[in-house]
Every structure is written in structure tokens, then in C-alpha cells.
Amino acid sequence: MTAIPNDVRPNVTDPNNTASNGPDRLDEATIADFHGEENLTRPRSEAPQDYDLVILSSFGGPEGQEDVIPFLRNVTAGRGIPDERLEEVATHYRANGGVSPINAQNRALLAALQEALAEKGPNIPITWANRNWEPYVSDVVQNAYDEGKRNILVLATSAYPGYSSCRQYREDYGMALEKLGLEGKLNIGKVRQFFDSPGFIQSFADGLVLGLKDVRTRLSEAEQKAAGNGKIRIMFCTHSVPTSAANEAGPRGVDYEGGSAYVEKHLQAARAVLTRVEAVDPALLDDVEWELVYQSRSGPPSMPWLEPDVNDALEAIEGAVDGVVLVPLGFVSDHMEVKWDLDTEALDTCDRLGFVATRTPTPGVHPEYVESLRQLIAERVAETASSTDPAELEANRGGVCGGKGWFDACNPDCCKSLRPGSDKARIADYAGDTTGGTR
Q1: What is the domain count for the chain?
Q2: Which of 57, 184, 187, 402 has the most CB atoms in a 10 Å sphere around its CB?
Q3: Briefly, what is this protein's role (predicted)?
Q4: What are 326-367's pLDDT values in tens digits?
Q5: CA angle (411 as vertex; 110, 255 as ends), nearest 5
Q6: Which segment of 37-41, 210-214, 293-297 scores lowest on mean pLDDT?
Q7: Residues 69 and 163 in one domain
Q8: Same domain for 184 and 213?
Q9: Is 426 a domain residue?
Q10: Backbone CA torsion sign across 408, 59, 197, 16
Q11: Would residue 272 count as lying in a domain?
Q12: Are residues 158 and 238 both part of a single domain?
């Protein structure tokens, strides 16, 4: 098994708030018997193809006040949530003129990727589609087919494994093909989850270096400190999901650190970020501890979700640290959940508790992040792939989290919900043998 990176600084992630498909934490007592997803023997890379279009695929967001409720109806379709409940969430968007920042951020990323592809290849057009707002996936797929495209590669703006971050995108396109009657007429593949890509990790490391320097400078100038001990807590923040969804993340029959593929990959990414910060200046991590926390949960209080919530985690360290750095590790751009849940609610909590605090940037259009996305596209396109052999492509992967990277095509049961009616049409299904391999 590929060695799992050691903590470079103490990890105080609460082991009582994990999912249940694996050990709370890897240590000397558990690692000898650990058989995680890294032991799966099935291929991870597919042979490159002559793709003729890339679609940057995202969540979507409203573009004005009149769009807010229709957009939220799309997001919550099938859940029977009345408009008065949706209006509670709508206040976050209405405070921003009814406009979600995610659309402008996706347009900026699209432009950056277009420039990168034009400069370094592959020579392939790229467009944009959304799950919950215009331009809708079905419309973009139909337009592509009408323009003669027959082999499409989807790049979703989500880095980690999980239902809403991976499988649901596969379903978006599978159901679009089914709805449009294009099954067998149009091939659609998907770029793998990129939590371990060098540029993704480097963008967070760069932001964390600046964030730690900022907090240390402000602490040195502060007349009064929350604890007076100089300690700093790094909170790596990601979107909470129901514990049931966390348990379902990844292929079946696999143990994961933290009990879930979703949790494990965030822990691995956090370690990779800290390793790069330590390489820049080890002193930046003096008197620093870190943990993985969650945000943006929804649904009834009776439904268990991954915890702790970032605000609860902040309350728990009142009087124990002087500074806090919030790192939005689960997000690729400064969209509404980052701007509201972290920049508004979490930083307000920090202020109330007396912490000197900052929130570091998301990748956005960080040059190294854009380059990593370009490389992920290039490894799938015949024109620019380093090999035509899937085994060589897998060996050439440049992941920085200590593993083999995610799958170009996922197992049919990967991230599948156990709820009735969850077996929907989808793209990027692995057709080979998925049995065995976890020893």
C-alpha cells in the first residue's frame, strides 16, 4: 500500500465526528490492518481519446433577485421544501443583489482555461454548463450535438469524491443523454476528482502562508489576546454532508481514514498543504494545531451530518488559542457558501470570541491551479496524453497526497445512495471487473 503521509503538525480533528466506514485515525495500532481504497487493483486511468469539446460543469447560481427562488427550487427539487423556507436561504443571495458570485467566478475560470489550452494545448474548445441554472447541462449537450460534437469531456468544479461532488455530475450528463435521446450517439467522459493535483494543493499552501503571516503580525501588534499563549488553530473547512452520504462515498467494501472517502481525501489534502507550508518556513507552524471542520449543513436537525460545524469548533476553543486561520479546503471559488458561512458567520464568531482571524483564498484562477486543470484535460486527450497505455498514464500521474489518484471511470456503485430510485443514468461508469482487490 502507498504510504500515507504523517501529520506534519498535530491533527486535532475530532475522531467522534466521523463517518463509519473505517478507522477514526491511522496510527500504529490501526495501520497494519488498514486496507483502504489504495489497495483496489482495478485500473484508474482510461486510454486517451479524440475529444472534441470540454465542458466546465458547475453548480450554478442566480443572476438577479427574480432568479433566487426559482434557482433554490431547482436545488431542492423533489424535497418538498416550501417557498417560505427557501426564502430563509434566499436572504444570503438577496444581500448580494440576488447574484451568486459563482457565475462570475466560473466565467473567469473558463477564460483562464481557454487561454491555457490555446497556449499549451490540447487544441480543444471549452464551454460551460450548470446543474441548477443557465446554461443548463441539457441545453449545452444538445447544442454541442447540433454543432457536430460527438466526444465530450466534462470537468466538474468539485475536487473530492462523494455523491454531490462526483456521482451527481455523472448523473447530470447521463440523464441529459437519456432525456435528449442521444444515448449511443454522443460519448461523454469525465475528468477525475482532483483533490491531489499539485496546483490545487499549492493554491491553498500559498494562501495559508500569507494567512499565517497575517495572523502572526496582527497578534504581535494586539494589546489584548484571547488566550495569551500565542497558539494558532488552522481550521480546514469543507461542506458538511449527511453522515449517510459520507458512508456511501467511494467504492464499496473499502475502509477509509475518518470513516469515509470524503473525509479521508480532505485529511490527505490538508496534510499536503501543511507539508508545502513547512517547506517554505517551518517556523510558520510553531504553536499551530489543525483540524477538519464542516459548514453549510442543511436538512432537518434529526438527520446526522458530518461535524463539528465550524462555529461550534470555534466555540470549543474559546480561551485556548489566540489566532485562527480558516482554510476553505473543500471549495474551488469564493461563492456564496464561502462568502456567507465563513466571511460572515465564522469570522463574526471569531470576532466575538476575541480571536485574531483570517480566511485564506480559494483556488479561483490561481495560475498553478489552472495549469493543473489543463494537465488533467491533457492527459485524457489523445493529442497531448503522455501515453496511449492506461497503465503508463496511471504511473505518470502527478498527485501530491501520497496515493494513486481518483478514477477516470467510477465503479457503478461508487457514491451510490441506498435510497430507493437512486439508480439513475450516468456517464463515466467503469465496465471492467470491480471484484476483489481490497484484500
Answers
A1: 2
A2: 57
A3: Involved in coproporphyrin-dependent heme b biosynthesis. Catalyzes the insertion of ferrous iron into coproporphyrin III to form Fe-coproporphyrin III.
A4: 999 999 999 999 999 999 999 999 999 999 999 999 999 999
A5: 105
A6: 37-41
A7: yes
A8: no
A9: no
A10: negative
A11: yes
A12: no
Residue with cell 517554505: 280
Same domain, 240 and 288: yes
pTM: 0.94
Asked whether residue 19 falls in the same domain as residue 31, the answer is yes
Confidence label for 35 from pLDDT (cuts 50, 70 and 90): low
Residue 281 belongs to some domain of the structure: yes
How far apart are alpha carbons 206 and 198 in whole angstroms? 12
Q: What is the DSSP letter of 202?
A: H
Q: Quick check: is 434 in a domain?
A: no
Same domain? 152 vs 132: yes
Q: What are the C-alpha distances in Å from 97 to residues 60, 66, 92, 364?
A: 16, 10, 9, 22
Closest by Cα among 333, 411, 337, 430 to 373: 333
Residues 189-212, mean pLDDT to the nearest whole number: 98
Is 335 flagged in the annotation as binding?
A: no
Task: Answer yes or no: is 248 a known binding residue.
Answer: no
Those residues whose C-beta lies under 8 Å from the C-beta of residue 147, and which sit 6 or more positions away, are none
**Which of 314, 340, 359 corresponds to the end of one domain?**
359
Distance (Å, whole) CA 172 – CA 181: 14
Q: Is 100 annotated as ligand-binding?
A: yes
* pLDDT at res. 2: 39
Backbone dihedral angles phi then psi of residue 206, each to the nearest 5 degrees: -60, -45
Report the side by side order of strands in the sheet with 323-327.
Answer: 288-295, 232-239, 323-327, 356-359
Band of residue 8 on the pLDDT scale cut at 50, 70, 90: low
Q: Both 236 and 346 in a single domain?
A: yes
- pLDDT range class, residue 16, cuts 50, 70, 90: confident
What residue numbers bound the domain in which 119 lies? 53-194+366-395
